[in-house]
Amino acid sequence: MRMRIKCEMDIINRLLPSMNVKKGGRSCHTQLSIGKKPQSDSKEGTLFLMVCTAQDKNGTKFQIKDNVEQIFAKFINEGKATIRFKDPEQDLCLCKADPLQLKNFLTLLRKASLGQNIDKINLSTLAPASNKGIDKPKTKLSVTSRKDYPLTKSFPSQLEHLHISQCRMKKIDSRIFQLKRLQHLDLRENVVEELPLTFSQLVNLRELILNSNRIQKLPSSLFLLPNWKQMLSLLDLSNNNITLLPVQLCELDNLVTLRVDHNKLETFPPTVGRLKKLKYLSASHNRIEVLPYSFMQLQLEHLDLFDNLFIDVTKSDLEEKEWQAPSLVECCARMIRKNRLPYSEDDLHAHLCRYLDSARVCWCGGFCFEGCVRALTSLSLQTFSPTVSAVDLQGRMTVPVLLFLCSPQCQRKYKRNPHAYWR
Ligand SMILES: [Zn+2]
Q: Mean of the per-residue pLDDT values for the chain?
């Protein structure tokens, strides 16, 4: 059982509301301890609750026995509780405490207030708080050289921003995944090769920067982790060796910024248009030849596609083809993708997973595989975003876009009025 806890606290003077004074103030970091005054006899001494803050390191003492009017602990599992004293007429509103520590602390306080014997517990005498006890917990840490890397010390557990660069980190330190509050993780300029699924433990991660590492392959299951799918808003994978963006990346519901410059990408996932919140996209210095049709559904504010391998399209072009009945595999695959049924290599052969991943999206929204025809056109960059720069040094402002048509009906419609398809 602990005699001391750290939390945030707000003191409310119950006399104040009647005097028409706004009650409560800003909560501050506090150390609470239960103990006896130093000079008092250890057997006879009265127990006190001592409250130390950064402004008041020596602490304010509240007598405990027969002086705790009530303990409000309905939200104890959220680390919140209120202790109401009789004299002075004050309420200590505690929050952001460790729930388990708070439970133990309040149990002890309750016992002491009833005058029950708690001597079995080794109570220390009350001493002023050390700086460590009341300082705001460290929420940001930046390590920019190997010699500063914490090898023996652990990372501060309350970290929200962590930046580690130029440390030649090859495997992401597993201790990082223990940091439950982490929101912003910047590991640029290391030598990371793989992204583990333990990322699932970082339930608050919003921004992930992996610029300038050695990543070649992105595991598709990473993008299906609930925390990635719902929380991730910025992903920077620039300056790696990535050849393919998995289609599952398009399931990141809150992705606003995606940077994939300086990689070896040959294409975007056909469903890229599903990234409804995407505003900033940069994919310069890759090997992209054409953009998929769903790219037109993006509502970007900034787009950079400089230095890719875009093909020249002089005139719009529709493939002529004899339609045949689609294969059984294609029929099944179309249904799986249409109904967004989840699939993984756990229940399907890897070959079939890749087949399903390769689905093309027709203008009508349907999916198709081999059984489709292509239409190719060239569009102005302004179609995609108001803020664009040329794709090459010659100032070219057009890009090729590839459309797949899933059925003879869609093909007929397209033939009748191609302009309806290209906005
Ligand atoms: Zn169609």
A: 88
